[in-house]
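Why do we bother with holo predictions? Because pocket geometry can differ from the apo form. Keep that in mind while you read this record for 6-O-phosphono-beta-D-fructofuranose.
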Amino acid sequence: MNTSLHPFKRIAINTGGGDAPGLNAVIHAAVHAAHTHGWEIHGILDGLDGLLHPENYPDGGVIKLTRPFVRNIAHLGGTILGTSNHGNPFKTRVPQPDGSFTEIDRSDEVVRRFREHRLDALIAVGGDGSLNIAHDLNKKGLRVIGVPKTIDNDLECTMTTFGFDSAVSFATECIDRLHFTAESHRRVMVVEVMGRYAGWLALRAGIAGRADAILIPEIPYDIAKIAAHIKRKTSSRDRQYAIVVVAEGAKPLGGGVTLKEAASAGHAERLGGVGEIVADRLQKLTGKESRTVVLGHLLRGGQPTSLDRSLGLNFGAAAVRALAEGHDGVMVALNPPRIDYVPLRVATAKLKLVSPDDYGVMTARTLDISFGE
Ligand code: F6P
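The structure, written out:
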């Protein structure tokens, strides 16, 4: 049955940026939905690398996706297509003779190869970076539908992104476990979680895990205030330990983020290390032994929760529906009870950050959880 308003024959799907649980569910649903319309669907490997560096793929960087091929993948973590968070064709990293790197724009090659593969449209599954690239490719004439993915939950216009619930669930389980060891040793345990410049992951997992303090980028912290809070909360004999959840993008009052690696040509800056700094300072200021746990990429691994799996399936089906209904340059977005189509321009204009009146911020204050304000 071909119900399409547009005479598509072959569409493409790619997954870009850091992986997130639920990517394979999107692919599964998109493949099934495309076949319902009688369209072929092809997967571009490793973000856009399959188009940008075809020489690296002896069997081709673009593969045909059939229903049998994706039959048993919806519950799996990772992405069967591979991904890359260094593959921006508008800023391709090129080594220089002196060992440094520069950036060049190779987006025309991507557009040309897309056409050579006779692809009519792209379903781009990604976070803020990949959807910005998708938006720029759309401006160059590619028909594009975006699908919002990220464990950071920092995309505007959608109630949530898939991957976030799996990361929050895992972080909460880790914090639950840390209560036992923290209590046994009467220590301060500092748990650093990902999230880039947004505190969603730290906030939601910190509340669910009953943390004593949560440090997020949106509320710069005063370490002396957190230390005083911990001293007060651990002053009675029946509660002598504390749990502090720190977002990797958290910053002290008047200070900046902690970097593992500064930005360089074609590579974004890498955050990380603030947990260790906070633990050191808290040990000195509270006199309590402190340890740090960095959850890092464990937050991106594992199977999607049923919520993320279902969201991925719904988004994948909606992306194909958007194409069939004639949409272009939009992102599918969860706006219960609907999945809406939001212009990529609007969805990528700014990051969604935790606002001071977020219900989680209110709840944390009610539960005597400090932000170090
Ligand atoms: O955007 C997802 C994310 O996991 C961030 O939370 C984190 O800062 C970043 O990706 C880590 O990226 P990489 O895989 O390059 O270490």
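Residues 164-185 form the longest helix (22 residues).
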